[in-house]
Amino acid sequence: MAGKIKAIRGMRDILPPETGRWQAVEKAAREAFALYGYKELRLPLLERTELFARAIGADTDIVGKEMYTFPDRHGDLLTLRPEATASVLRAVLENGLDQGAGVKKLYTLGPMFRYERPQKGRYRQFHQINCEALGSDAPELDAEVILLLMEILKKVQLGANRLLVNSLGCPECQAKFKAGLGLFLINKEGLCEDCQRRRTTNPLRVLDCKSAHCREILKDAPVLRDYLDPDCLAHFNRVLELLSRFGVTYEEAPRLVRGLDYYTRTAFEVVAVGLGAQDAVAGGGRYNGLAKELGGPDLPAIGFAIGEDRLMEVLPENLGQGDGKKVFLAALGPAALDLAFSLLQTLRQAGVAGEMDFGNRSLKAQMTLADRLGADYTVIIGDRELETGKATLRRMATGDQQEVALSLLPMVLAGL
C-alpha cells in the first residue's frame, strides 16, 4: 500500500480556524487601502526570469540562490515570483497604467516563492500584502505610505514594534558611498564567504548580512547619511518631520539597506518584539529607477510589503475568531429535520450564520457538535416544539433557555 503524500518541505497548509486570522488581516488591509485610494491588482505567479534578474539585482541572494526557476516546453526561463514589486511594474508598464496625471496607487495580496531554509515564520511559499504608489517623488508620498503601513498594523493589533527608517540616497549618493564602504572593507578579515564576494561586486549588500560576526566588523563602517547630497538629505528630513507631526515613533537606522538592489532614498522596516533574529514583519522604500531599468519611463515609486506568515506569529490568537454570532439547529426526528433545514436557509438569508447536523443523532451528540463548532446559540426542535409551534433557544455560554415562536425565530436571532 502506497504511503501518504505530504506537502513539500517549506510549504504548508493553512487550516481553519487559523484561516480566520488571515482573513481578518487581509480585511483590515483592504479597508485601509480603500481609505488611502488604492486599487487591487491581481498578478500571475509566473514571470520571465529576466524580469527579476534585472529588477532585483544579479548579486542578491534572491536571484543568486533562492529563486524557483525552470525552462518551459519552449526553453524559455520562467520563475515563480520571489517578490511582487517587479511584477507590479511589469504589469503597470505593459498595460499603460502609468499614463495620466496623479499618483497610481495599487496593492496586491498573494503567495511568493523563495528556496531558503525553512524556519519559524519563514517558508518557501510565503504570503505578502504589497503596496505600490507610482508617479511622484514627493516626500509627502513617502510619509503617507509609511502612515498607511502603520495604520494596517494598528488595525490588526500588532503589539510592541519598532519602525526603522533610513535614506539610501540617489544613485550618485550610493556610488560615492559604495566607494567609501569598499575602501573600508578591502582589508577587513573574518568576513563570511558571501561578504568577501560582495565587497568587490556590490559593497552595499554587505550591510544586509545577517551574520553577527560580520555585523560586529561593520560597526565602524561609514554610514549612508554622511554621503547624502543636499536634495536627498532635505527629502529625508521632510519625511521624518511628517512622521513626527503625526505622532509616528521611529528610529533612524543608518545601516538599513533592505535586501533588494532597486531601492533609493527612503527605506524602512517594521520589526516586532518577540520574533528573534528574523524580526521584520514589514518593509519597503523608494525604487525610483526601477521602471526605467525595465524599459519604461523615469517613473518614481515607493511601496512596502507585509510578510503575513511572520506577522501571524505575533498577532493575537483570537484575531478574526468569533466575528458575528453563529446558530446551530438541533433537529430531533424527520419532521423536525425538514423544518430545521428550511429554517436554516431563512436564517442565512437574514444574515445569520447557521449550521445543523444531518445524522439524525441524539440531542446530546448534537449539542456536543454545536459546542465544537463554536455556536453562540442552539435552537432545539423536536416533536414537542412542532406541536406547540415554539422552539427552545439555548444560549451556549450560559445554558439559559427560552421558548420562541417558530414564526419569530429568524427575526429574534437576527436581532441578538
What is the β-strand count? Answer: 16
Secondary structure tally, helices: 15
- On the 0-100 scale, what is the average pLDDT? 90
* Helical percentage: 25-40%
* Spatial strand sequence of the major β-sheet: 1-5-6-11-10-9-7-8
Structural class: alpha+beta
| Tally of discrete structural domains | 2
* CATH fold-level name of the largest domain: BirA Bifunctional Protein, domain 2
CATH superfamily membership of the largest domain = Bira Bifunctional Protein, Domain 2
> Span between N and C termini?
53 Å
If classified by CATH, what would the architecture of the largest domain be?
2-Layer Sandwich
Strand content: 15-25%
Categorize the overall geometry: elongated
Largest sheet: 8 strands, mixed
* Global Rg: 27 Å
- Uncertain regions spanning at least 5 consecutive residues: none
Query: What's the CATH class label of the largest domain?
Result: Alpha Beta
Molecular structure report:
With 416 residues, the protein is an alpha+beta fold. It has two domains: 18-170 and 229-312, Bira Bifunctional Protein, Domain 2 (BirA Bifunctional Protein, domain 2, 2-Layer Sandwich); 326-415, Rossmann fold, CATH 3.40.50. 37% of the residues lie in helices and 22% in strands. The chain contains 15 helices and 16 strands. It has helices spanning 18-35, 49-56, 61-66, 85-94, 139-155, 171-185, 193-201, 212-217, 230-245, 290-293, 308-312, 334-349, 363-372, 383-388, 409-415, and strands spanning 39-40, 46-48, 68-71, 77-80, 104-113, 125-134, 161-167, 251-252, 264-272, 280-286, 301-307, 326-331, 353-356, 377-381, 390-395, 401-405. It has an eight-stranded mixed beta sheet with strand order 1-5-6-11-10-9-7-8. Strand 15 and strand 16 (401-405) form a beta hairpin. Helix 1 packs antiparallel against helix 5 (139-155) and helix 5 runs parallel beside helix 9. The longest helix has 18 residues, at 18-35. The chain starts with 17 loop residues before the first helix and ends with a helix.
